[in-house]
């Protein structure tokens, strides 16, 4: 028995674009829903679709391109569906799979990624999910930036960065990347409004005698810790938070001098100190 299937309006518009004269009229009898109302497509005239409101009975017309702003409901055995599927480009198919996976995984929360971002992220995730291949550190930077679009970043994303960090730590070939992944993990925890956990991650590296940390990564870790302490200070207004943050910033400065992240964190510290 046929069931109604939801189809994104933008996909239907792409299908129509290939042959508008023949395809617009084939939508007559189809239900369409935009952000506010539900409609029945009653007819067509050139590039226009004639719609009747599902409840009030009022009618309107619109160009077929406006379907991109809503959803159409087609029977599962409607030939239009098989035509749409057969005409999809490899990128379109990858994009649909990517968006479905990201929605189900909850990694990006309600953040809306650009098409190319979604597909690129999905490819990284698939290598991890199917083959347990941890991304390169450059890919991890890219992924973390996307995860931080969600405000706050999600628990699922933080958990994934933790898994990657642990995985490279266990790898003899990639153990040297552990600190770099840990920095991304700590940064994402801050973006997830979990500064206490970010501090714990930083402490695990800085206090370890078994992990070799270069001067530049150590300065970054100290700056992250200072920023997380300021996050906590904004919650509880405990002055000792700012005192420790200042010490960590001075340590970072002594190690590496000025950089953009450190300077921005210092400016935030000065603003909090003046307002205290």
Report the sheet with the most strands, covering strand number, pairing sense and barrel closure. Answer: 6 strands, antiparallel
Strand content: 5-15%
Task: Please give the number of β-strands.
Answer: 6
Mean pLDDT: 95
Please give the share of residues in helix.
55-70%
User: How large is the radius of gyration?
Assistant: 26 Å
What attributes characterize this protein structure?
6-stranded antiparallel sheet, 12 helices, 6 strands, 276 residues, 59% helix, alpha+beta
Written description of the protein model:
The structure is a single chain. With about 280 residues, this protein is of the alpha+beta class. Helices cover about 60% and strands about 10% of the residues. The longest helix has 22 residues, at about 215-235. The chain starts with a strand and ends with a helix. The mean pLDDT is about 95.
């Amino acid at each position: 028995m046929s069931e109604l299937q939801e189809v994104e309006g933008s996909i239907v518009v792409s299908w129509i674009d290939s042959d508008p004269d023949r395809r617009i009229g084939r939508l007559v009898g189809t239900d369409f829903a935009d952000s506010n109302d539900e409609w029945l497509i009653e007819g067509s005239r050139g590039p226009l679709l004639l719609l009747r409101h599902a409840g009030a009975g009022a009618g309107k017309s619109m160009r077929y391109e406006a379907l991109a702003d809503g959803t159409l409901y087609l029977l599962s055995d409607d030939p239009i569906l098989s035509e749409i599927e057969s005409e999809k480009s490899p990128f379109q198919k990858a994009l649909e799979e990517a968006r479905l996976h990201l929605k189900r995984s909850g990694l990006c929360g309600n953040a809306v990624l650009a098409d190319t971002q979604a597909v690129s992220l999905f490819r990284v995730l698939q290598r991890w999910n199917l083959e347990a291949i941890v991304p390169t550190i450059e890919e991890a930077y890219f992924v973390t930036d996307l995860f931080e679009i969600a405000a706050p970043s999600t628990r699922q994303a933080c958990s994934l960065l933790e898994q990657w960090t642990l995985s490279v730590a266990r790898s003899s070939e990639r153990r040297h990347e552990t600190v770099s992944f840990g920095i991304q993990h700590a940064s994402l925890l801050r973006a997830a409004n979990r500064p206490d956990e970010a501090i714990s991650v930083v402490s695990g590296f800085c206090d370890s005698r078994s992990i070799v940390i270069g001067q530049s990564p150590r300065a970054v870790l100290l700056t992250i810790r200072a920023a997380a302490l300021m996050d906590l200070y904004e919650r509880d207004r405990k002055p000792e938070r700012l005192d420790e943050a200042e010490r960590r910033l001075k340590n970072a400065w002594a190690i590496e001098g000025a950089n953009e992240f450190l300077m921005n964190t210092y400016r935030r510290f000065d603003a909090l100190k003046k307002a205290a």
